[in-house]
Amino acid sequence: MAAAVARSGFRRMFSVSAFAPPKAPAPRPQADPSPNLFVSGLSKRTTTEGLRDAFAKFGEVVHARVVTDRVSGFSKGFGFVRYAMTEEATKGIEGMDGKCVLCCLMHSENW
Fold first, then answer.
1. How far apart are CA 109 and CA 89, in angstroms?
2. Domain 36-110's class?
3. Which residue intervals define the domain RRM in the entry (predicted)?
4. Structure confidence by residue, pLDDT tens digits, 54-102
């Protein structure tokens, strides 16, 4: 009897159903439109003025900031841009996503 219980436990441990693959994660919900953009993939030489100028082609930029290292003063590779209107931010995303500013690809998204 004990041998039968041990065998069934052994089978259960190595059965296919015990190792079912994890369920696929739910799709990420689409973010609400926002005039604030997170910009990544910036060159170390990108400045706040350069970021502002690059995005100003698509609308009125209220605020732009490149996050910099405290010691070296160089860009950490990302920044933020805020437009006056959400529609302008959408144009900025469409116009600058994957574009090169100081020879680095940028990726823009709402945050």
1. 9
2. alpha beta
3. 35-111
4. 999 999 999 999 999 999 989 999 999 999 999 999 999 888 887 766 5
For the chain, report the end-to-end CA distance as a whole number of angstroms.
Answer: 62
> In the chain, what are the domain boundaries?
36-110
Give the number of other CB atoms < 10 A from CB of residue 50.
18
- Tokens standing for residue 94: 């469409």
> What amino acid occupies position 93?
I
Per-position DSSP letters for the chain, written without gaps between them? -HHHHHHHHHHHHTSGGGGPPPPPPPPPPPPPP-SEEEEE---TT--HHHHHHHHHTTS-EEEEEEEE-TTT--EEEEEEEEESSHHHHHHHHHHHTT-BSSS-B-EEEE-
Residue type, 111: W
The Cα-based distances of 63 to 1, 18, 36 in angstroms read 76, 54, 9
